[in-house]
User: Fold this.
Amino acid sequence: MIRNAQAMADEFNKTDDIRVVTGGTDNHLFNLDLTQTGLNGKQTQELLDSVSITTNKEALPNEKLSPFVTSGIRIGTPAITTRGFNEEDAREVARLIAEAIHHADDATVLAQVKKSAEKLAMAHLFN
Assistant:
């Protein structure tokens, strides 16, 4: 679980606008600061739900938005790790999340992200 979370955090650290709040993680979860993306936590949670990726909106340190909206999301790896996802799979999930965030208004890209997320999940259905 920890290695998968670290792999995901590493992928997000490659972006210019999605910030891992602590720079990385030593456990199975971490928070993303979305303030530079133009999306808030609630919007991102709903966006990712629409492409078959489950996350939770999350208030960040010194949060400026309502706890019902938030500036971030929480990412956790227990569910994917239990299904058999490895570090490269976790990196792919992070890339899909970033792709969805960066193309939140592009239905064609979002449809492809959803298809890729579901294909990845199905590949680990019986692990």
User: Anything to note?
Assistant: The two ends are 15 Å apart (CA to CA). The beta strands are 19-20, 29-33, 56-58, 72-76.
